[in-house]
User: Fold these one by one.
Assistant:
Number 1:
Amino acid sequence: MSKRRVLYIPIRSHTDRVFRPEMFEQFRERFEVTINEGDENYSTEQVAEHIGGFDALVTGWGSPPLSAEVFERADRLKMVAHSAGSVKGLCPPEVVAQIILPRKICVFSGNHAIATNVAESTVGLLIMTSHHFAAHALAIRERGEWLDPAIPKNGQFLNGSTLGVVSASKVGREVIRLLEPFDLKLIVYDPYLSDEEAEQLNVEKVSLNELFARSDLVTVHAPMIPETEKMIGAEQLKRMKDGATLVNTSRGKVIDHDALLREARTGRILLALDVTDPEPLPKDSPFRKLPNVIITPHISGAGYYGYFKIGEMTVQALEDFFAGKPVQGAVPFERYEQLA
């Protein structure tokens, strides 16, 4: 049986980022792969020019939107494997509705692999922030203070806490999985989470306001879609307990930053922001100077494990699809509007 033909359009730097050499070699052995040998990403027009005769297309960060013309020329295309995160910029809604769904083209996304990195970073930020680790370390390094009495050394950390997860997204669920060893109560706000799924995750479903009122620590994993913009504002933030911790590794615009700044300035809550609005924050942003705010430059998704897992999942998805098996990471287009 002849090998399936795959058009691979990411550039070398992307390949090195998400594929271990042995995995990329395995990919080339199992499929007839045509590789973008240039140093620049293809344009939409170039994809349309080359796509004829291929069974699958592999895209990545920097790949262009796939227009109707691309699919018109894709006479054999059965699968698009996106070796990166969201496919929202890759697959325009009209193309999904008019071409991808009617033709039953499978679209894979490697966003679950990235979720493992973000979840690990989130748990680290929850621990670091609630324990005031950064403040203690800076007191020693910058001021020579061995145990600054102004910095708490006791508090409510993960064990024994009520921890609120905003959105049971892929990252949110991965965070829930990583928190299983801790002795804590998990509550979740997610209007799309069914009672059955909540039971399976061993979490309690609550309203957004209740989550902020009850939680000792809150972690935000909502997708950035129109209905989530500034979803978290003054009404929620003022309900937080004194000394509570809020971590955001999703998107900055999910939180109203004017309201967040007002609450942060009171000093009564702790913040860890890997994402901000705008991003990066201006150099004169007051957030940068507040001692109760930790800011990192949108790096929670980084990490060899998750990046290389993208390559593994991409190859596995291609193999499973052409073997007639379910594809882990197939984009659920019935929920496309709710996806990040």
Number 2:
Amino acid sequence: MTANDGATRPPGSNAPGYRSRDALRAAQMYYLQDLTMNAVARELGTSRSTVSRLLSMARETGLVQIQVNNPSERAPALERHIRRRFGVEAHVVPVADTVNDSEALERVAIQAARTIGPLVDSNAIIGVAWGSTLSAVSHHLTRKITHDSAIVQLNGAGNTQTTGITYASEILRRFGQAYGARVEQFPVPAFFDHADTKKAMWNERSVRRILDLQHRMTMAIFGVGSMGAGIPSHVYSGGYLDGGDLEQLERDHVVGDIATMFFRADGSHSDIQLNARSTGPDLTRLKNVQRRICVVSGESKIHGLRGALAAGLATDLILDEGSARRLVHS
């Protein structure tokens, strides 16, 4: 079928299937055959502006993924250093020192979304933590249809001020929509008031169903929470912790958290009091997940990131250039 703006297309040719086919053909001619936009337009029997829209569609839907390899750039050297030192697959996002925290997060989120997409397969169970970083990532996911896949919430989101359902569910919904996967929410608070309450709830069948999905995860995607981050982690700014909780975290020498489970600089976490009340995944069990993708933006999270790496919680790391430099040079 040759695109011609509908002049001789069969009925229904403006349907998504035809548009995707046109986008794929345009992308193949432009990127693989080095034809100009005008040449592609002539061959498809359409206009140059339509070809431009088709190429944009090809990039936005993941039909085309653009990678720039610059041998003089610092990012590849940083990636190799991080890989050797910490044993993780690293993706360093070039960001100038003059860029503010919000813009840096946006750039890291775009790169993370493009990195995650090719790693997602059918029959996957993907655990997703809520938070400022994953919220940003969720806005840039490219569409990739999978079959029999599930997105499962890693930790509860409720607190004394809100159920947290709207905030967390929007993040999960975007992941589910991007990958054609069903979404499994975890409707419990982020922290119980008492550890005994958590133990009792963990015996409920409705809760155990979500826990079972988490135990069978093939991929987990999360950020690193930190009290001193340039863009405050949602768990510290959203009313989840009171003054007593924060003081206890200081006494326990906590440097960060993943999905509201806390750890120290050396990666230890089993005896941190607040973890007994948290609804996040057991960090020892999380290490059994085959692919664990950690997304970090902002040098102020470096202590938390080091703790997460010391605990062996990530297999893949996506971070900004400034954070990467601090990670390897300090």
